[in-house]
Specification:
single chain, about 70 residues, mainly alpha, Protein Yjbj, Chain: A, about 0% strand
Amino acid sequence: MNKDIIKGHWHEVKGKLKQQWAKLTDDEIVHMEGTYEELSGILQKKYGYQKDKAKEEINNFLHKHHWDD
């Protein structure tokens, strides 16, 4: 998985993040600035995901929106 995908599609991605994960705040989304690791860490904290589950959820999210190519 190319971790730059999130950065490359950031303007599109950030609008969909709150739809997918409603517990994310606007400040958190702005702070992560498209960084895969930041998103993973916030999902672990907010949703109680283990590291592997956070990665899986992010990858599924990217695939769902066709941002994984």
